[in-house]
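Quality-control log, excerpt.
Job 1 of 2 completed; input and output follow.
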Amino acid sequence: MHPEDLNNPAIPEKERQHRVRAAEWAGWAIFFIGGFGTASWAPLIPLLRERLAINDGTLGLLLFCVGCGSLVTLPFSGKAAAMWGCRRVLVTAATIFTFTLFGLSQVSSLPLAVMLVLLFGACMGSIDTCINIQAVIIEQAAHRLIMSRMQAFWSIGGFTGAGVSAIWMKVLGLSATLSTLIACACMLLLLLGSYRYYLPYGGAGNGKLFARPRGVVILLGLVTLIAFLMEGAMMDWSGVFLTTARGLDLSLAGTAFAVFSAAMLLVRFTGDALIMRLGQRRIIYAGAVLAFIGFLAIILAPQLPLLYTGFFLVGVGCANVVPVFYSMMGRQKVMPVNEAVPAVSTMGYLGVLMGPAFIGFLVQATSIVDAFAFLASLLLIEIMLAYAIFRQQD
């Protein structure tokens, strides 16, 4: 056991509780940094397209490099956390993540842009893995649910990053360079104020470079894949649905995903209390039913208020899937946490990468309405997987 382990019996209970609360606060901070940095990258995408003078196809391949970079580091991050602790890995990855973000605001060469985007994605994947390993360990030490609110702070960071970037660039007229520099400074200041409370260890066991999921972890990975696929599809295709299937103006294309994201943020921020009151099973099953009703409203709704209600219900229904099943990784005994989280996260990222492209093939072969009907059918698979997971956990 690490001497600073939050469950170390040698630590007085009052001091242990103080350390748990400090680690929880620090967990909120690093989740916020991840979401804020990711959102701050979004305004740089059109800038890169213009500066590099590339077409949409090349831009798509460049953006694909973000996911590829993440997939490269996801399997290694659990091993790194086990060897050096979450604190060292997170501080290193978050620092490089921040400087790479600023570099992307300056780059004017396509080969260099590719390397920076790969590095940016690699740091994002490493952060994503280690913050979830850390969150699972903190939740175990706190003896209460905290995962949903932890995940909410990534969303809060995303909303904040998108909002302040718009204010700095469109309202105050700041350049992309200056706007990104301010964003990076904010990230580094928050990192400086919180890093000392990150966990200096990364779970039991030595961790494996490529941990093959097994037992219930396979089921957890499949559920996560579906959840991430659905989130990615809503992000990439909800706007297309509004403009093609419902004929709305292009300026309104982002409103559906904004409603979906707001619903997820609201439910995740209150999710831990809801789960403790209603139980994980009810939350997952009821969420799947709400999401299914939401998809029916999206597909069949003749009026805009009902259409947006559908997107809201899908967000509500999907919000707690990832927090609930990530929490379960702390209770399963098949694999150490620092092996289970990277394995499940890798499967989730495959959903993010492949899902929107697969939906694109469905749209081309059938229609956008049929593609959304397919997403609704995935909820039935999610319920069956959840039933199998809960049954194994009994």
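Job 2 of 2 completed; input and output follow.
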Amino acid sequence: MKRFLHFVVLCRGRLARASRGPLGRENKTIPRARCPRNARARGPRHFLTGLSACIIAAFASLGCEPGGMGMMPGALEQEDQYTLLLTTLTGSDHVNLADLYLQRTKQYTQWQGLYVVNKDDSSALYWGRYRTAPEAMRNLQTAKQYVTPATGENIFRMATIVPLPGKDVGPPEWNLKNAQGEYTVLVAVFQDLPQQNYFGRKGRAVDLCKKLREQGQEAYFLHDVSRSGVTLGSFPAQAVQTQRVPKRHPQTGDTFYEDLRVVVDPKMKAILKANPEFLYCGNTEIRMEMDPQTGKMVRRVSPSVPMSIGEFKKGQMNIDAFHRSGNP
């Protein structure tokens, strides 16, 4: 996928260990905490460092520290929220193939609650509806270990716990899909991590959004197929401009120019400055990246990133794509 967002925030200098958030409260350094191992396929490590004061206060008011593991309690988890995604089928005949999978699985397993959801380009086979993700763990293990008697293949070895298809969580007026404006700032992402007993990503995002709004922030939540996010602000198209920025080649040292999207709106820059550390499942994210000046790999804190509301609404970019491509 072509990288979409390359932002240069003109106001951002060194990442401060303590700064002031939009509410004027001084940030405090948070002790490091254990976080999910192997939480991301790309391999960055996560730990807690200095966060925006407003986000720290929001996590504290939720009754947990950033990075806390386990299920998020509350009303959002009182009805069925999850299902098992057994397999996804693509191709021109995906609808008929999915129906065949459904009928054969019913025939061989006698599992109750199997169903198919068809889309334009794919079909997915699901099993059951569960109030909480831990309730689905037993059936998840059963699905992963199942071997079809017809071929002897472990066809559902990649099964996973996912939110119920089509089910949304949170007040519609806080949903980013209903926000006005073209740009916002992505400050946090949540993802269910069954291996680390970390669930409730939709509820976590909505609860964090709620607490930030109680502090006077213009916060929004967003959900896609596998992740939920929290953003701050809603800005017009003029908040970001395309500028030609000089770059230095890491091997030759030659100077070249690249067209980058640059944040110019003062309020948007203020949000980025007040929230310098991007949160993944409540933890600050550290990446190994090549320094363009030296060509060496260095550890860097992943910052909060601007994202296009319009691109997300159109389905042209998901949360993870904005997170990856938005980093400088």
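Post-run check on job 2. DSSP finds seven helices and 15 strands in the chain.
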